[in-house]
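Sample entry (118 residues):
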Amino acid sequence: MITVLCYPKCGTCRKAEKWLKENKIEYTYRPIKEQNPTSDELKHWLEISGLTINKFFNTSGVLYNEMNMKEKVKQLTEDELLRILASDGLMVKRPILLNGEKVLVGFREEEWKEMFNV
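Predicted structure, serialized as tokens:
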């Protein structure tokens, strides 16, 4: 089962959804603002993605800049950063694609093509 966490006003999310539809890939849509990821979900995705925690932050978001996260990401513990990510779905980079035990953060078409053998 494929799940995609998106924000409808996000251009990258719209591009990712369009790509999924063009490639006839069925998925479940999860609105990231209304159903923001929990700390436990994020911790699990972090472990299986092989990414560093800073890759999960929406660095171009207003909230990220307002909270001066660029500096905090360097100083806070992983648990503290997970709590911040879980506090607001707009803090999280999107889209997030979940496919069993695989996680992709952001939309890089080549990565998505590789995941789905397209």
